[in-house]
Amino acid sequence: MHWAKLVGAAALVMIGSGAAAQSVNYDTAYARFHPSETALERALSPAFRQCIGSSGGVTVTMRDCAAAEYARIDLRLNANDRRIMRRLPQAGQQRLRASQRLWLSNRWHHCDNDPQLEGGTMDLIIRDSCTLTELTRRTLWLGQL
Questions:
Q1: How do residues 100-113 score in pLDDT, each as one tens digit?
Q2: The whole model's pTM is what?
Q3: Helix %, strand %, coil % for the chain, to 5?
Q4: Helix, strand, or coil (residue 8)
């Protein structure tokens, strides 16, 4: 996903309901979770949009914007995880914890193997965009459980 798409905001589309928290297989549920680009874009903070908008297209500045946004979204992901864990029975906590560990070990695989990566400074932006998108996707998924 390109920065221009990440920055443009539209309506947030959430799929699923609280019933997903009772799922026996969180990995399958997550694999099926594909929020729209607009949902992913909407999840980005106004501070990120402003930062990217004022970056002047400078790679270092854009990467700093992405790093700050990553930190904000990571906090939301952790808050969502804690909220869900508190209300799940022990077996559900174990399943979700195993799913989280699997996700953590594989989360950047497709970002590292993106066919758009050709070498050069733009690869840094593409990879930042990919990792930010994947973190946002996981955060949205946890948020709807």
A1: 999 999 888 888 88
A2: 0.80
A3: 70, 0, 30
A4: coil
- The gap from C-alpha 32 to its chain's centroid, in whole angstroms, comes to 15
Render pLDDT for 20-51 as a digit per residue (tens, 0 to 9). Answer: 334 448 989 999 999 999 999 999 999 999 99
Residues 122, 69, 130, 38: is their CA dihedral positive or negative? Answer: negative
Amino acid at 1: M
Q: Say if residues 42 and 10 touch (Cβ distance below 8 Å).
A: yes
Q: What is the 3-state secondary structure (H, E, C) of 34-92?
A: CCCHHHHHHCCCHHHHHHHHCCCCCHHHHHHHHHHHHHHHHHHHHHHHHHHHHHCCHHH
User: Contact 26/96 with Cβ under 8 angstroms?
Assistant: yes
What is the CB neighbour count within 10 angstroms for residue 95? 17
Residue with tokens 């874009």: 41
Question: Is the alpha carbon torsion for 105, 88, 32, 67 positive or negative?
Answer: negative
* Cβ partners under 8 Å of residue 129, min gap 6: 1, 2, 3, 6, 66
